[in-house]
Amino acid sequence: MSTPITIVDDSSLSRKLMIKSLPPGWDVEITQAANGVEALEAYRTGKADVMFLDLTMPVMDGYAVLENLKREGMNSFVIVVSADIQPKAQERVQSLGAMAFIKKPVSTEQVTKILKDYGIL
Description:
By secondary structure, this protein is α/β, with parallel strands linked by helices. 39% of the residues lie in helices and 21% in strands. Helix 2 (36-44) runs parallel beside helix 3.
Protein backbone atom coordinates (compact mmCIF):
# COMPACT_ATOMS: atom_id res chain seq x y z
CA MET A 1 0.00 0.00 0.00
CA SER A 2 1.32 3.42 -0.97
CA THR A 3 2.17 5.95 1.71
CA PRO A 4 0.32 9.23 1.13
CA ILE A 5 2.77 12.12 1.34
CA THR A 6 2.32 15.83 0.82
CA ILE A 7 5.11 18.13 -0.29
CA VAL A 8 4.43 21.73 0.72
CA ASP A 9 6.42 24.59 -0.78
CA ASP A 10 5.42 27.74 -2.64
CA SER A 11 8.19 27.08 -5.18
CA SER A 12 7.29 24.48 -7.80
CA LEU A 13 11.02 23.96 -8.42
CA SER A 14 11.58 23.19 -4.72
CA ARG A 15 8.68 20.72 -4.79
CA LYS A 16 10.20 18.98 -7.84
CA LEU A 17 13.62 18.81 -6.17
CA MET A 18 12.01 17.35 -3.04
CA ILE A 19 10.27 14.69 -5.12
CA LYS A 20 13.60 13.80 -6.74
CA SER A 21 15.21 13.44 -3.30
CA LEU A 22 12.71 10.81 -2.09
CA PRO A 23 14.24 7.38 -1.52
CA PRO A 24 14.17 5.23 -4.67
CA GLY A 25 11.61 2.45 -4.47
CA TRP A 26 9.59 4.11 -1.68
CA ASP A 27 5.97 3.38 -2.57
CA VAL A 28 4.27 6.77 -2.21
CA GLU A 29 1.28 8.68 -3.47
CA ILE A 30 2.42 12.29 -3.80
CA THR A 31 0.26 15.37 -3.30
CA GLN A 32 1.74 18.82 -3.81
CA ALA A 33 0.66 21.97 -1.99
CA ALA A 34 1.80 25.52 -2.75
CA ASN A 35 0.81 27.00 0.62
CA GLY A 36 -0.36 26.12 4.09
CA VAL A 37 -4.07 26.21 3.25
CA GLU A 38 -3.55 23.57 0.55
CA ALA A 39 -1.38 21.57 2.98
CA LEU A 40 -4.14 21.46 5.60
CA GLU A 41 -6.66 20.47 2.93
CA ALA A 42 -4.41 17.56 1.90
CA TYR A 43 -3.96 16.56 5.56
CA ARG A 44 -7.69 16.65 6.25
CA THR A 45 -8.41 14.43 3.24
CA GLY A 46 -5.91 11.77 4.34
CA LYS A 47 -3.16 12.60 1.86
CA ALA A 48 -0.42 13.44 4.37
CA ASP A 49 0.75 10.51 6.47
CA VAL A 50 4.13 12.14 5.87
CA MET A 51 4.44 15.86 5.15
CA PHE A 52 7.53 17.71 3.91
CA LEU A 53 6.83 21.30 4.95
CA ASP A 54 8.51 24.57 3.98
CA LEU A 55 8.28 27.40 6.52
CA THR A 56 8.23 30.54 4.39
CA MET A 57 5.16 30.66 2.15
CA PRO A 58 2.41 33.13 1.25
CA VAL A 59 -1.22 32.68 2.36
CA MET A 60 -0.26 30.48 5.36
CA ASP A 61 3.29 29.72 6.45
CA GLY A 62 4.67 26.46 7.81
CA TYR A 63 4.44 27.61 11.43
CA ALA A 64 0.70 28.21 11.05
CA VAL A 65 0.33 24.78 9.44
CA LEU A 66 2.06 23.16 12.42
CA GLU A 67 -0.09 25.14 14.87
CA ASN A 68 -3.25 23.95 13.09
CA LEU A 69 -2.04 20.35 12.94
CA LYS A 70 -1.22 20.42 16.66
CA ARG A 71 -4.66 21.86 17.47
CA GLU A 72 -6.27 19.12 15.35
CA GLY A 73 -4.37 16.32 17.10
CA MET A 74 -1.59 15.96 14.51
CA ASN A 75 -1.74 12.56 12.87
CA SER A 76 1.05 13.23 10.38
CA PHE A 77 4.82 12.76 10.41
CA VAL A 78 6.07 16.25 9.57
CA ILE A 79 9.57 16.97 8.30
CA VAL A 80 10.32 20.67 7.97
CA VAL A 81 12.40 21.49 4.90
CA SER A 82 13.72 25.04 5.04
CA ALA A 83 16.65 27.30 4.29
CA ASP A 84 15.99 28.98 7.67
CA ILE A 85 18.27 26.96 9.92
CA GLN A 86 18.35 29.33 12.89
CA PRO A 87 18.25 27.41 16.19
CA LYS A 88 15.13 29.35 17.27
CA ALA A 89 13.28 28.23 14.12
CA GLN A 90 14.27 24.62 14.73
CA GLU A 91 13.20 24.80 18.39
CA ARG A 92 9.88 26.37 17.44
CA VAL A 93 8.96 23.75 14.82
CA GLN A 94 9.90 20.92 17.16
CA SER A 95 7.76 22.43 19.93
CA LEU A 96 4.90 22.49 17.42
CA GLY A 97 5.28 18.79 16.67
CA ALA A 98 7.64 18.54 13.69
CA MET A 99 9.67 15.34 13.87
CA ALA A 100 12.72 16.48 11.92
CA PHE A 101 14.31 19.47 10.22
CA ILE A 102 16.22 19.35 6.93
CA LYS A 103 18.16 22.29 5.51
CA LYS A 104 17.64 23.06 1.83
CA PRO A 105 18.94 21.84 -0.53
CA VAL A 106 17.73 18.36 0.39
CA SER A 107 19.55 15.13 -0.40
CA THR A 108 18.17 11.62 -0.78
CA GLU A 109 20.59 10.47 1.93
CA GLN A 110 19.19 12.97 4.46
CA VAL A 111 15.59 12.00 3.75
CA THR A 112 16.35 8.27 3.79
CA LYS A 113 18.19 8.51 7.13
CA ILE A 114 15.31 10.34 8.84
CA LEU A 115 12.69 7.95 7.46
CA LYS A 116 14.75 4.91 8.53
CA ASP A 117 15.51 6.40 11.98
CA TYR A 118 11.77 6.73 12.62
CA GLY A 119 10.83 3.35 11.12
CA ILE A 120 8.93 4.75 8.17
CA LEU A 121 11.15 3.02 5.60
